[in-house]
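Lab notebook, bench 4. We co-purified these components, and the gel suggests they stay together. Before we commit to crystallization screens, I want a quick structural picture of the whole thing.
Request: model the full complex, all chains together.
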Amino acid sequence: MFNPDLNHEKPLIMHIDLNSAFATIEQQAHPSLRHRPIGITNRLSKRCCLIALSHEAKQQGAKVGMNLEEVKTIIPNIIVLESDPPKYHYVYQQLMKIMQYYSPKIKMKSIDEGMIDFHNTPTSLHQQSLTNIAQDIKQAVRDQIGHYTTINIGIGPNQFLAKLASSLHKPDGLDIIDHHNLVSTYRQLQLTDLPGIAEHYAARLNAVQIYQPLDFLQASHQTLKNLVFRSTIGEDWYQRLRGYEVDDLTTRLGQVGRQWVLDHPTNQTDKLNSYLQFLCQTTGKKMRYKNVDARGVLVWMIFTNHENWLKRKMFKLSFFSDHDIYSKALYLFNQRPNLTIQTIGISCYQLQKTSRNQLSLLDQVNQTNDLTTAIDDINHQYGNFQITTANSLEAKQKIKQKIPFGGTEYFSLLLEANS
Amino acid sequence: MDPTVYINQPTQVIAVFKNNHCYPAKFYYKNQLITVKEVGLQHPTHSGQKILYIFNVSDGQTDYQLEFNTSSLSWKLVALINV
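Here is the predicted assembly.
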């Protein structure tokens, strides 16, 4: 008989997910938009991508990531708003405060979702069931953010099962997955319902006759490691599916960068230089915000004929100033093929803890540091890019800082940039 | 498609203190006194180091966005949404 060796630990991980976050927050703010199909985009244009949809829009068949033209064929009367980062940041902070009340160990996974670890929390909390605590949190969200705002809560023995539980009954759901109901829950799901399994991984699993989550659970760790994922990722999945924690990791900052899709593709050098310099300045700001210096620069682009181009270079000395990043990026950028550019991006890598606090023997290094600090201070006081290079002025008008998918590590910086 | 209409004009506001918070209760728009029936969401934002408070309010039909500047102690009607 199949023995899945499940984790029998009491479920103490709670995953909290704000339903259709940006759209719900707009509906909370604007009562006239409630119970209507609405979408949020970063820049309103004919073919803009919708980064969030209200529950009503999703019910009518629209999907996040579709462009506006596609969505309008499904929902002709959809209301579309541009994203408003300060609003979302406020709700993010409120949600974080509510979560911190219950445990010191919380982790915000993105702008609209977070996790509370109830291991090592006071025993007074354990006297309540986590279901009661979850109901308290739902009420706190309604009281402190607004009565229209709902959250999904999932509880499980590891982050994966807690997140899966939170996705079972949207919106406003509350579910627990533990060793008692894990197999029966998997039985009702498809592979792509599992967090982290998209179509690409599903195809790999299908190739070894794994078609359902239960097949996935029954697969040996050798099969997952050697045949499906061809790395230790397979072993992680073997543990994760059984409720053992493998995702409690702190990731190291590998690279910092910025990209931009041009609204009007071009190969005009003066315009492109302006965009590149602006992207270098925002990258420099992110690096200094994270207190890191870089040694490598990578410039990449996608042309209108869909070809890609990428060039990278490592340098002997680390750098942190906007000017240094730009001069190094420009050196690479000038080697590009003469084609019309659709998307342009720059990244700095080989990051290391900044050495800016250390006085240099070289005056020029100290002067660069002083000038960069002075510009950052002024921009912090009066709003970002109040002091900027003349060359990047055109880009400053066009490129706005917008809400990113995923992480929240630059959220405060993003708000400064919008001020 | 986007029902937001930007106004960006100073306005006069009657505010109340309730539960230790300040809320706009009435304000003028085009010489009409608008009564706030619901504060949908209020949140701070920044302009450099200046703190602004945004109040998203509704009179039951139209949604309005009011901004309170904590440096100049002035109110501005930023936008309205009329679906």
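Residues 4-81 of chain B form one domain. Worth comparing against the SEC data before the next meeting. DSSP finds no helices and eight strands in chain B.
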